[in-house]
Amino acid sequence: MTKEPRPRFDLCGGHPALDFVNSLDNRFAADGPKELLADYTDLLRFTGQTGLLEARQVRRLGSAVDPAAAARALRSARELREALAAAFYGGVEQRAPLAEDIRTLERYFHSASGHRELRWEAVLEKSPGRCGLAWDWGRFETHAELPVWILSRSASELIMSQPLDRIRACGAETCRWLFLDTSKNHTRRWCKMEVCGNRMKARRFQARREA
Ligand SMILES: [Zn+2]
Fold it and tell me: What is the reported pTM?
């Protein structure tokens, strides 16, 4: 009997680091959040689906990593995610995250840089036709923590490169998913217009009728 395939992740955040934070769904809901990264396989599926890990890396990690290391990596991923959530929602709501969340991010960002190798590349990916030194995951590519390091790098790049007011939270209180607002006038309000935008519109319409 084949197992039911797990649903694909909804990557409407427009950046892997924001989609990663959204993987704790209904984060602020009164009846508690819903964990979409239930196990290490989910973490691999997520990093694969965002394109941060190649399919061959996902397959290799899926078969090479032992259960104890996988459980540790999943715990790390969730710890990183929650520190990112504190920083991103802090930015959205104009309040500072806790110092311990900042230290956690610092630790993961350092750890990600510390697990790469400097290599001589015959052809540089970013400058085709030229050769030179480049960073590569090298021997760390088969390490259980690779998805965590790769997500750390992606998040650190986002934090350092984007004007932070482009990172916004969905206007539906029940959703609050993060997204990168790349709209021309920076007026995007919903993670998905067809879901949250329409739901809120319907609610306002209903409220007017009842008034
Ligand atoms: Zn939404």
Answer: 0.90
